Amino acid sequence: MSSTVVTLPDGFQYVGAGLLSTVFILMYQSMLVNKHRKLSGIKYPQLYAEKAEAAASKDALLFNCAQRAHQNTLENVPIVYVTTLLVGAKFPAYAASAVALWSLSRIFYTRGYLSGDPAKRVSVMYGVGTISLLGLLFGSTYVTGEWLYKAFSAKFL
Q1: Tell me: the pLDDT tens digits for 82-100?
Q2: Are the C-beta atoms of residues 96 and 20 closer than 8 Å to each other?
Q3: From CA 125, how far away is CA 154, in angstroms rounded?
Q4: In angstroms, rounded to a whole number, what is the distance separating the alpha carbons of residues 65 and 81?
Q5: CA 59 from chain center: how many Å?
Q6: What single DSSP character describes residue 8?
Q7: What is the phi/psi pair of residue 5, to 5°?
Q8: For residues 140 and 143, what is the distance between their CA atoms, to the nearest angstrom?
Q9: For the CA atoms of 138, 143, 147, 148, what is the dihedral angle to 10 degrees?
Q10: pTM of the entire structure?
Q11: What φ, ψ does residue 101 adopt, rounded to 5°?
Q12: What is the distance of C-alpha 41 from the center of its chain?
């Protein structure tokens, strides 16, 4: 059996720090969901307040907003993790900066959602987070393409 040695580039520790920031965002959002669940009286295992409950109670509406902000972040985290690690293998400062900006944008996203007006979740920082995520996607596509090209060239050209 052969083994492969992976050498991480200088600066990869910043990628780790950037990825760790997403854990703090998720914990922050989870605490907000728990706080608003308690205030609204929505019992487990109910994921969201019913439409009538949210219409009748500001606390129930805020619970839904907190829950949705958290869920949206959970939906994006796998993409963020994969693309950050791929980009970070070649461009660690770029990857760390992009994931840090994405994490920062999630704070603004969550606070906007928790205003009680879900439209306020979209701000300039939302755009910054989207651009960061797209940068990670394009960067990871470039890095992976380069790896595949080198492997293909070495084997067949």
Answers
A1: 999 999 999 999 999 999 9
A2: no
A3: 43
A4: 24
A5: 26
A6: P
A7: -100, 130
A8: 5
A9: 0
A10: 0.92
A11: -65, -40
A12: 28
